[in-house]
Each structure stands twice: as C-alpha cells, then as structure tokens.
Design brief:
about 190 residues; alpha+beta; SH3 type barrels; 7-stranded mixed sheet; 3 helices; 9 strands; about 25% strand
Amino acid sequence: MTISMKTTFGGVAAAAVAAMTLAGASSASAGVMGCSASGSKQEVGAAVGAVLGGLLGNSVGGRHSGAETVGGAALGAAAGSAVGCEAQKGRDTGSRSSTYSRGGYRLSSDVAPANYTRIGDTFVAQSGVNLRAVPTTGSSRVGRLQAGERFQALAKVRGTEWILVGQGGVGVGYVRGDFVRPEGHRYARSY
C-alpha cells in the first residue's frame, strides 16, 4: 500500500490545527495561545511544534496512525508554545547574549551602565512591568517582569528610583522602583 506525501501532510496539518484548537481551549493562561507577553512567537512555536509532532506521531503510528498523529501534534504544539512564549517574554531560550563588566557588575550587552549602589536582594514585581536598556522610561524595552515574579535586585541607580535587574548575576535591564518591592516586605517605600 502506498500513501502519498500529500495525503499524509494534509492529515497531519488537519490534526495539528485540531490539536492546537483543543489545547488552546482547554487551558486558560498556559494554553497554546495564552502567553502573557505580547508578540507572535508563541503562536509560531505552537504551529511549528504541532506540524513536527504530528509528522512524528504519524510516522510511528503504524496502521492506526490517527490517534498518534493527533497526540504528537498536541504534544508538539504544547512544547512549541512553551518555547515560543519564553522567547516572546525575552527570556534566554538557549542562545547567550554577550556580557561586559563595568563598575564591578556584569551587564548584558543590551544594557547601558550607570552609577550604582549595591542592593543584592531578591525583589518581587508588584505588576507586569517592562525592563529598560537605560534607566529611563523612553529607552528601549529589553524584557518584562510579570506580576509576582521574583528577581535579583543587583543595585539601585544612584540619584534615581531605578533598579538594576539581575539574572544569574548579570544585569539584564532596569525597572522603576515604584513597580517592585523587596521580597517579604508587604509595603516598602525606600530601600
């Protein structure tokens, strides 16, 4: 029995769309299309993952490959969605940006240096807030913190309310101090 590539791919594509629809409808914030950061990387990741997962499921399915195709597409969509959402949030998903050292701090190449006062504590974002390349609201966005997200507060920019946000000891952006608080402190005005 010979199965044409057109028929197989058409079935896989239909299974991928069905799996993405079911996965998106069955979960609220962690669904295939429910990333908290704006952009389209999650959707692209889900689509690519669904097609590749469907093809893999179809190839290992044997005589009854329908369920395996749909299952593979669903798993592929979920995995692709997770990777795409992390990329959409500006997180490191495998590639490393370069870093440099200034004033005793390691900084991402996307972040401009400033004059710092060391903090070295864990802080929590009080709401969703953008990370900036320079400690000003008009500078470019280099990432985002979600409400309730914990992060390393490496330092405060002297003479301002801006905090240098760290990830693995590297400064990855600046956030205004009125959007964050030290972990464990219910209300904090200064730090």
